[in-house]
Every structure is written in C-alpha cells, then in structure tokens.
## 1
Amino acid sequence: MRIAMIGTGYVGLVSGVCFSDFGHDVVCVDKDAGKIARLERGEVPIFEPGLDTLLAKNVEAGRLSFTLDLAEALKGTEAVFIAVGTPTRRGDGHADLTYVMAAAREIAETAKGPLTIVTKSTVPVGTNREVAEAVREVNPDLDFDVASNPEFLREGAALDDFMRPDRVVVGVESARAADVMAEIYRPLFLRDFPIVTTDLESAEMIKYAANAFLATKITFINEIAALCEKTGADVREVAKGMGLDGRIGNKFLHAGPGYGGSCFPKDTSALARIGQDFASPMTITETVIEVNERVKRRMIEKLRDLCDGSFNGKKIAVLGVTFKPNTDDMRDAPSLTIVPALIGGGADVHAVDPEGQREGEALLPHVVWEADAYSACKGADLVVILTEWNEFRALDLDRIASCMATAKMADLRNIYDAERASAAGFGAYVSVGRRPFP
Ligand code: UGA
C-alpha cells in the first residue's frame, strides 16, 4: 500500500520508516526544507537507536522517500497520516492543534481521493471529527474517511515498540477505513499482536488515559519514595514487593527525579484541560502534575543538604541531562529544573551527557561540558547522577571518589547503593527512597 506521512518529527519519522519496513511504499512530507534535504542524504535528525540503519535499508529498497511536495506524496495514496506536533498551548495547557488542522486543510486542498486520513498526533477527544469537518468544508467532493491511530512509542526504544507493540489502537467509523487500517497493520496482525479497533473518541481517549496512568504510577512511587526516606524503608524493595502482584506489575515503578519528556508533561496537562472543559475534573491527573513538580524541587533540597546548606562556590558534576537515556531529547527534563537551581545558588556545574550536550548547550547556560564522567568529577564537591545512561551504570567508583575534592554522590536514579559508595571511598551517598550514608 502507498502511504503518505505528514511530519518527520519523532513519531512521523519512526512510523514512516517502520511502515516502509513492513513493505509499504511510504512518502514522508515535511515543510522544513533543511530536514528533507538531510533525510534525502540519509541523515537522521533525531537520535534513536537503529533508525538510521532501517531508514537507509528502506530508501535503498525504493520503499521510502522524502519530499516537500504534499501533492506529489498524495498521488496514488490510500492513507495519509498526520503526525505533526501538538505542543502545549501557551497559557492554558491545551494541546495546540494548529499544525494538525493546517495539515487536514492542506490534504483537503490537494487530495483526489478516495483516502483515509489518519491522525497519529496525540489529539484531544473530538479532534478526528473536527478534522473530518475541516476537510469537508474545504473540499466537499472528496471521498474520504478519518481514523485515529495514537502511538505508544517510547523514545530510545521506538523501533522495538513499533515492531513489537503491546497493542495497536485504531479508531474508525466506517468499514472501509477499518479495512485500510487492517491492511496497513497486517504484518503485526499476522504475528498476533493485538489490534484494538474502536470508535474515534475511545481511541483518542485511550492515548491520554494510558499516558496519564503511567505518569500517575511513576508519581505514586516517587511519593512513596519520599515516605520511605522518612521511615527507613527501601523503595526498591517496596516496588519489587508491589510489582510482583500481577494486578500492579513491576514496570514504571522506578523512583527517580520526576518524569519528563515530550509526552507525559504535555499529555497530563492536556487531559486536565479536557476534564475542565467537560466539567469532569481530572483531579488525580491534576495532582500528579503538581506532585511531579514537587518531586523535582525535593531533589534540589536533597542536593542542597549534601552541600551543607549552600551551593555557593561548590563544583558539582552532573551525569546526564536528557529526560531519560538513549535520547537527545531534553524536553521537560528534570535537569532543566535542577541544574539552573544549582547554578543560581552559585555552583560551578560540569556536565556530561552522551547525546544531550548539543541541546544542553542551548538550554543550560553557564554549564561547562565535559567529555566523560571522570573529567566532570575532577575536583568536584558532589557528583549527581541525573540520567541512567548505560555508561554511568558501571563507573569505576574508586577512581571517581579519589579524584573529587569531597567525595559525595547523589544517585537520583538508584543505580548504586550506600555500601558500594562507602567501600569506594565516598564520604556521603544519597539516592531516592533509600537510606542515605552516613
Ligand atoms: C511515553 C510512553 O511511555 C509511551 O508509551 C508513549 O508513546 C510516549 O510517552 C508518547 O506519548 O509519545 P517516553 O516519553 O518516550 O514515552 O518515555 P518513558 O520511557 O515513558 O519515560 C517518561 C519519563 O518517566 C522519563 O522521564 C523517565 O525517566 C520517567 N520514568 C519512567 C521514571 O521516572 N520511572 C519509571 O519507572 C519509568
């Protein structure tokens, strides 16, 4: 099947590449000429493990191409996906639908039909109907259906999530759209991955409910972690004991410095707004948003305590600035709250991140960027592990402790433990939800 993908951001590019790997003919469209030129040269503008190889393979096979020209992309196409950004609208927390609706109108102006217009961008309940109305308004003669197909990819594991999903969610209103979507996802259906076919509104709601639930789960364990610290319990043991209950599950129960990224903060905020708009308050989600902010601020106080009450004049090594490992994405990363507080308090921050430096340089002024953890820790008063990149999981702690001015560690991802830190020569070690040392 020939598919057009509008938007070569994270979701659009990963989906386009993976659909072409299924054997479909995919044309990715974007308005950004620089981006299209880079993609045509085989350069991938985002960091996602394996994406460059899969892209090259499918371009080589003649199944994947890139263009600025929507009309060209829509020629002979049975399905067009809208995968443009839906950022949080400034001021009110709503999802900004400007790009989605603009894409819908452009499709209407250009398409000849019959066509299924599939929204992959995360959009509030009711948006697919608005897309249909907008298309009908611009081109009343167009023979088209709409479909909602939210994505559940995790950055850093996106290819695996796409190729081996827990489920695919498809919202449709007509048998014809259902058939088109079934054909697109046939390779997954044949391998018994569940395809949930539902109505448009439910599909839209599933996406927000799933992300808000996961954000709630993380926030719950983060709040339990704070209580563990006060009571002497160990949050890792607590999470393990809880997670073995099949009804709870052990995933997304890692306590840390708060969730970040391009999805949870944006989608929880949008869901809260949808609740307000429909006079059906999302009280739990609203609380989760508030508690997550509190979690990040709690980390700052933890670090301040380790610095004897003041960051002033302290050299602090920060390991990891991206919101999680295996991405260069820093959107809403806890580092954006924590690092400025250190610098604002007078600390000299030396940071290292395997992929985050380029974004970090723009977003975190006054940080000194180092090549590796050892150079960052040289002469430091405190080392803070903010992101659990693999290369920070097996550090030579003896070497780190011996090169620091005062060997103190804040392990905000619970990678190490007090015994190990103490044996390596650290004088102080704190983590999240576990007993500190000394
Ligand atoms: C998330 C969802 O996991 C995907 O299913 C969804 O498709 C995606 O949002 C989206 O809506 O596009 P992502 O933002 O890439 O994916 O990252 P996650 O792996 O979910 O992590 C989000 C944040 O939660 C990170 O800051 C991470 O460090 C934090 N986290 C995650 C924890 O603090 N503890 C955990 O146990 C798990």
Note: Residues 2-198 form a domain with the Rossmann fold fold (CATH 3.40.50.720).
## 2
Amino acid sequence: MADTASNKTVTIKNEGAVRYLTLNRPDKLNAMNRVLSDELSAALSAADKDPDVAVMVITGEGRAFCAGADLSGSGESPPSREIADEVSHSITFYQQMVTLNTPMIAAVHGYALGGGCNLAISCDMVVAADNAVFGYPEVKLGMPAAGVSPPLVHQIGRKAAFELLVLCENINAEKALEFGMINRIVAPDQLMSTATGIAEQLAGYDHDALWLTKQLIRRCADMPLPSALELGRDIALAAGMYK
Ligand code: COA
C-alpha cells in the first residue's frame, strides 16, 4: 500500500482514493481509550477534508474490531465529573461521525462491543466476518448506555434497540444482519477483500455524486418525506443538474 503513516493507536493507509483507518491496540482488543478516540477523531476529520479520499474503510488490528470503552483504571469508581466528561467526550465523537460526508465502510471481525459496536453501525456500510460478535454490555456493567443508545435506536428502532441495550446479550453476525445493523456476512479471510471491493467500487464513481448522495441520505433520514424531496431538489440544483 502506498503512502502509509502510522501513529500510536490508529494506523492510516491510502490505496488509491480509499483511506484505511485501523484501530491499533490489538493487545487490548482495540478498547477505546482517550488517546485512541482522539486519534481516530483526528484521522476521520483529516480524511473527510481530503479531496483525494473518496471512501474510508475502518477496521481493527488483531482478533477484534473494538471491545468498546477502555474499562481499565484504578479499579476504584471514578468521580462522577470524570464519568460525565467521558460520556460527553464520546457523544462529541459520535456527533462528529454523523456529520462526515465521506462514505465509511466498517470491516468487523471478532468483538464489536459498546462503543465499538456504535463505531461500526455509525459507518454507512458494515461488512462483518462470520465470527463477529456485537453487543452493548453497558447496563450489565451498571452504566447507562448513554452515548450508544441514540444511534442504535435511530438505526434499528426502539424494540430491537431495547433488546440489545437492556437485555445486554451479545449477538452474532446473522442476528445483526436481521436487525439491520450490518450489510454483509463473509468468511473471515474474505473480510478485507470484500470491504476493499465495495470501497473501490464506490471510489470509481464520480466523487461529488457519491458525497452528495451520502449527504442526502444522512440528512433526509431525519426529515419528513416532503422536506426530504425538497432537499433532494436543492442538492441537484447545487450540483448544476438542471443547468
Ligand atoms: N477495556 C480495557 N481492556 C480491555 C477491554 C476493555 N473494554 N476489553 C478487553 N480488554 C483487554 C483485556 O483486559 C485483556 O488485556 P490483558 O491481556 O492485558 O489482561 C485483553 O484486552 C484481552 O482481553 P481478554 O478478556 O483476555 O479476552 P477474551 O477473549 O477472554 O474476552 C471480551 C474478550 C471482549 C469478552 C472481554 O475482554 C471483555 O468482556 N471485555 C470488556 C468488554 C466491555 O465490557 N466493553 C465496554 C463496553 S462499555
């Protein structure tokens, strides 16, 4: 792969117009500590601003996609202000995810738990290996599922989200497909080639058409249909389609 840059917890690689972001704490199953989430946030933002990047692929090094928030600490309960700060930080991260215009494909293998599951489903497409495990253990751990509930409810509806967030049982890739959390299930050795194939297909299209369509999909999901159709017209006008 050309143009490789690596830092501590997120590996960044370019291949043509596809940017690969790989969570890189394999010894901790890519659990998301503050360093990783800040580096990922910066990498997402940089990719989104780079006109040479058409599509992003997000994956995890080692045997998991991401085991969620980093739970390691002193073992003592952190002060509530610290918890509030962490939750607020993760919500800011997901707010950033939903405003990105570059299509994102998650390539998920092994565990995708809590914030890791949220990271996957916040991407536009999810390709999962058949060994992927999805789940939200927060409530079971005595924490409100604060940052992760809104995106999940938004995507899969109240009933299925309640089951995942409150029953706290992990699900396999087939169940995740049934819930509408993922798009494809493949053998583990086909994971990256499948995600790459999709990314290259998208990158082969006109980039403005791709980005504007992602923007429209993202924005119209929150709108009544008449307003969404108006937005579609505005985007077509802005793209000069009616000239
Ligand atoms: N935070 C910090 N470290 C984590 C972690 C997390 N969320 N998840 C895994 N790790 C670390 C483990 O502590 C272990 O580190 P060590 O080798 O230094 O002891 C390493 O990753 C491997 O994990 P391990 O538990 O040995 O692997 P496993 O295959 O037996 O179990 C899990 C995998 C995912 C079931 C288990 O690690 C787990 O339950 N993790 C916590 C998941 C979670 O609750 N996430 C938070 C959501 S809010």
Note: The radius of gyration is 18 Å.
